[in-house]
# Entry
Amino acid sequence: MTEPQLLRMGDAYNPDCPTRQILDRIGDKWAVLVLLTLKDGPVRFNDLRRRIGAISQKMLSQTLKSLERDGLVSRAAFPTVPVTVEYRLTPLADGLIGILDQITRWAEAHVGDIMTARRAHDGQEAMAA
# Structure
C-alpha cells in the first residue's frame, strides 16, 4: 500500500495545488481579456462585453464572478434604474497587468513566426496523411 502524497505549496503540476488553481484562472482566455480590458479604468458590464466581443453574457458573468472571488476585480453597483454596475481592477491585479502586457507584446512581436510555424506544421501533417 502506498502512502498518500502530501500536497505541497508551489507544486503547480498537482491539480489540487493553490498555485495551479491561480495559474489556471489567469491562464483562461476570457479572464486575460477581461483583465486587459479593465486596465484603463472601470467599465460597465455591457461595455465590457462589447469591447471583448464573442463572449456570451453568461461566460462574462461567470468570469467576472471568478475574478472577483480571487480578489482581482471589484464590482460596484449604483442605485439607478436599471442598476448600473461597474467593474474595476483591484490593487492585487496591478502587478499581474504588467505581466499580461508583456505577454501581449511578445505575442504581437512573434505572431508572424507562429503563423509561419503553424502553416509548416499543418503542411507536414497533410503530406503525411
Remarks:
- The mean pLDDT is 90.
- The chain has one domain: 18-128.
- The first strand starts at residue 43 and ends at 44.
- Residues 18-128 form a domain with the Arc Repressor Mutant, subunit A fold (CATH 1.10.10.10).
